[in-house]
Give the backbone structure.
Amino acid sequence: MDVFSGKVAVITGAASGIGRALADRCAAEGMRVVLADIEQAPLDASVAELRGGGCEVIGVLTDVSDAESVEQLAQRTYDAFGNSHLVFNNAGVFGTRPGPIWEATLNDWRWIFGVNVWGVLHGLRSFVPRMLASGEEGWLVNTASMGGLVPGGSPYGVSKHAVVAISEALYSHLSERSTLVGCSVLCPIYVRTQILSAARNRPHELVDTDGPRVDGPTRLGGRIETGQPPSEIADATFEGIRRRQFYIWPGDEVDHIVKTRFDHILARSNPEVRPFS
Ligand SMILES: NC(=O)c1ccc[n+]([C@@H]2O[C@H](COP(=O)([O-])OP(=O)(O)OC[C@H]3O[C@@H](n4cnc5c(N)ncnc54)[C@H](O)[C@@H]3O)[C@@H](O)[C@H]2O)c1
């Protein structure tokens, strides 16, 4: 896909970080834009800023972990603009709990999988059939992470492996059909966003009152604070879409990580343990 002007973009997790940078880039491309986020105030502020810059934009309060909410997002998109050409399933949350994987609580798994995995699945279920029915050119980008390519760590890393696998399934199932709709999976590493305060949006019923907190500073903190600006991720993403590239990541660090993982798999040797995700 290489002509964006006048087309319709939908972005989840659009009120902050990578989602907001994607929204800015869509607006700069002359697209009509639907911003979806669970946080009302930053969502409203983002809509106002894009509108002030001349973009045709709406905001839709959305919880991607809820199928009905994402279906309403699709309805609102089609009511407002009659189509969706570029869909970013980007909303995601991060949380770490010190300790091994068997000590992550059921609520940790439910929250992180609810947003990171079910959020992507809900996006596909609500948008792909509509995009195919339109017969027009379209593209979906699912935001995974470098954490979806290294040996899985916490529930976050495991959830991002699922996003990579879902995206690979989407790619092959779209490729088997004669359709103008394609897809990419975005695997960034260390981006300067609000991801470390993701627990601000954790539903009450999924908060554990005992045990260690899952938010707050983590060993990743320094790398996120000094990480890439989100605008670079948006630029790399658009470059990837233009090239019809499936795997998208900016920079060389991820190349080494992927190579090391597959070298170990091919050598049937034990995984290299990395302090990620
Ligand atoms: N920041 C990084 O270093 C990094 C690295 C790799 C991947 N990612 C991924 O990038 C994506 C965007 O994260 P970010 O770094 O921009 O973080 P961010 O916290 O700055 O932005 C995430 C946005 O998602 C929204 N959100 C959270 N729960 C939601 C829900 N249930 N429904 C709808 N919206 C919800 C938040 O309100 C926020 O606006 C995530 O999928 C994340 O896992 C981030």
The radius of gyration is 18 Å. The pocket of nicotinamide-adenine-dinucleotide is lined by residues 12-13, 15-19, 37-39, 62-65, 90-94, 115, 143, 145, 188-191, 193-195, 198, 201, 224, 227 (CB under 6 Å). The mean pLDDT is 93.
